């Protein structure tokens, strides 16, 4: 029943690539042993090799070493581990202060809010109307008690990309550790930890046509961090649990399948949507930065009409888009991201997020604009919010 | 190169069943949306339905309700969440005392040890020479400050099954919450939470030919527990992170594929191994209970010879078995389980763990005994430890 649906929302990047599944299969059916060990038997060693090859691929995509990569169950775990693990390791030293941005995804934002409830001091740094972090406010917020700064590399919803080099340089100068949630930018935008002094990086497989339930945390060698998931001695004794080797292999394969040409193609679809919507539909606001933006993201507010209504109509026409972030699309609550860039509830509720993946085409982009024009026009004609009232 | 290897260790149960992968495929390639929501579009609702159907299957296998099941990344996360989540929820009430058994797998054991380092009071309850928990010691250990008792249902290494009903009745009478790690018994032995008053149950997919990286935690309605993985509002706002829907569907399918006949077949292989080894090889000790035992587990110590040597020789002959637990097979450290039932280092190092899965046959069981007789005889002939010295 969904054969004809065109996904231009976060699902666009979550469809597994068949080649990823093919790469995982040997680890499901042939080399399926638990990754034992020098002391184990042959298949255990083969399994371990598959895991370690995958670790090298992830490390290499970030410019780090394989022994700086810990596999996790996804971004959320990676960010929990990064923040809680560092605060725990620095306990009694400089343990009472955490800095995050107002636009963080929930993995970082709600971890910070929970820690604040537990007695930690947390500062939430403002962003400007395009979602760009206020670097002066960041500088001023860092104190000798700051254990960690956690600022996303790119926003999940409005696509704004931060100047991570400038942020990392500030943290380095102030001798404070920096974590960045790079879930949505990984492989889409360069982040080379050998050039940029970030200490911890959250990445995930599901945003690049890899398997769900697999992520990783880059941890620069020497970073003080305690184990968060207790149990066995896996992952350099930093993350317990039987290794998800098929998942790690799938993640590595997904990374290897991303090409610069593909990223250019995503960018071209993004730009076409933004340009056509702005020139062909009235009363539209682009959310996020026009210049520093994820290749696969467009986010636009259609004024005098509700995003949810557009979504439902587009769904009936075979197009899937989202209002707000993936998490917010579960509720009708206004997006903290749109509110964070100074938008009001009307702007938040009228916003649509477009995301593009490998399986989208320029024809998809054009077709959805044609559909959008019709839907927005019809809805505005019956809307009590209409600009023409 | 492994075509001819017969796996009779923990890997025996970790080979994915092809039918599980078939069930997961639609969620990789067709219904791959993020599980949004009543407010989302069609495919998001379809995804959500796949997730909720899977939740019902897991709940039903435990005799619980679907809203008492939270999906996780595996047993380790489930047990971390159960123990840390309950202690956190009871903080300031009765928060300083945790009770576990000495034979717990690392997910519970090392979580307990970490909490002890952080200032919690932890009691480790002894077991007898067969690995059966000392119920009187448990009763005596419970105090008004006890927040949680965590006792495994069956041991991962020596296969001993605890009298979980008696343990649950003690906890209920003393009004203390009970968590059980049922990773190795789930679907292999009955555990009906509508009959047995256990409050939290850890289960996993990878032990029953399901996917790696997927588990669940049963949480009885009304149990005080805080969220452990912070972030989005998934899983009844108890466990954040984009849902691994293909994984959940695979887990449910794996549960549905287990039959009583299969469990009888596993038991028959287990009994054949134990009987033939004991009657055909001298100086052998059965580890664990002869009567209360996992259907898929046999564990035997071959005295005057090292388990690692047997493992290596069997590997060359095409048989994969383990010494100690999966985790211990990474190191030459003696198993805490064998030591916990009063064994010494010699007994621990001479122990072999056999586990059986769906793809093993009685011919495998017979063939490994024939191989074992030869290997043990040859090794004893050259061993400095020989009984005949």
Automatic annotation (TrEMBL), chains A, B:
Residue span, Aminotransferase class V domain: 6-367
Alphabetized UniProt keyword annotations: Iron, Iron-sulfur, Metal-binding, Pyridoxal phosphate, Transferase
RNA-binding among keywords: no
Entry superkingdom: Archaea
Annotated transmembrane regions: none
Cofactor entry: pyridoxal 5'-phosphate
Gene3D superfamilies (UniProt xref): 1.10.260.50, Aspartate Aminotransferase, domain 1, Type I PLP-dependent aspartate aminotransferase-like (Major domain)
Enzyme class per UniProt: transferase
Classification via InterPro entries: Aminotrans_V_dom, Cysteine_dSase, PyrdxlP-dep_Trfase, PyrdxlP-dep_Trfase_major, PyrdxlP-dep_Trfase_small
Family of this protein: Belongs to the class-V pyridoxal-phosphate-dependent aminotransferase family. NifS/IscS subfamily.
Record-linked PANTHER family: CYSTEINE DESULFURASE, CYSTEINE DESULFURYLASE FAMILY MEMBER
Annotated protein name in UniProt: Cysteine desulfurase
């Amino acid at each position: 029943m969904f054969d004809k649906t065109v996904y231009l929302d976060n699902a666009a990047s979550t469809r597994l690539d068949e080649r990823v599944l093919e790469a995982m299969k040997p680890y499901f059916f042939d080399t399926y042993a638990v990754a034992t060990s020098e002391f184990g038997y042959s298949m255990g060693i083969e399994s371990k090799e598959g895991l370690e090859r995958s670790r090298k691929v992830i490390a290499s995509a970030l410019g780090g070493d394989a022994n700086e990569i810990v596999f996790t169950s996804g971004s959320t775990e990676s960010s929990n581990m990064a923040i809680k693990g560092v605060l725990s390791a620095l306990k009694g030293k400089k343990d009472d202060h955490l800095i995050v941005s107002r636009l963080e995804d929930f993995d970082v934002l709600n971890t910070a809010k929970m820690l604040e409830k537990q007695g930690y001091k947390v500062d939430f740094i403002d962003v400007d109307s395009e979602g760009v972090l206020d670097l002066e406010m960041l500088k001023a917020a860092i104190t000798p008690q700051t254990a960690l700064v956690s600022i996303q590399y790119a926003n999940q919803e409005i696509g704004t990309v931060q100047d991570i080099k400038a942020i990392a340089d500030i943290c380095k100068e102030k001798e404070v550790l920096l974590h960045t949630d790079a879930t949505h930018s990984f492989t889409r935008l360069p982040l080379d930890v050998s050039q940029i002094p970030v200490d911890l990086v959250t990445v995930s497989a599901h945003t690049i046509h890899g398997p769900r339930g697999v992520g990783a945390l880059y941890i620069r060698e020497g970073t003080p961090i305690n184990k968060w998931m207790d149990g066995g001695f896996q992952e350099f004794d930093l993350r317990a649990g039987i290794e998800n080797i098929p998942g790690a292999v799938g993640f590595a394969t997904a990374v290897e399948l991303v090409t610069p040409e593909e990223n250019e193609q995503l960018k071209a679809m993004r730009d076409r949507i933004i340009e056509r919507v702005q020139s062909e539909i009235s009363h539209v606001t682009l959310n996020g930065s026009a210049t520093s933006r994820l290749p696969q993201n467009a986010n636009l507010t259609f004024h005098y009409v509700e995003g949810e209504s557009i979504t439902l109509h587009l769904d009936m026409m075979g197009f899937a888009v989202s209002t707000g972030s993936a998490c917010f699309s579960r509720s009708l609550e206004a997006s903290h991201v749109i509110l964070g860039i100074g938008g009001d509830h009307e702007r938040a509720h009228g916003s649509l997020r477009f995301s593009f993946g490998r399986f989208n085409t320029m024809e998809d982009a054009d077709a959805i604009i044609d559909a959008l024009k019709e839907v927005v026009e019809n809805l505005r004609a019956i809307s009590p919010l209409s600009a023409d009232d």
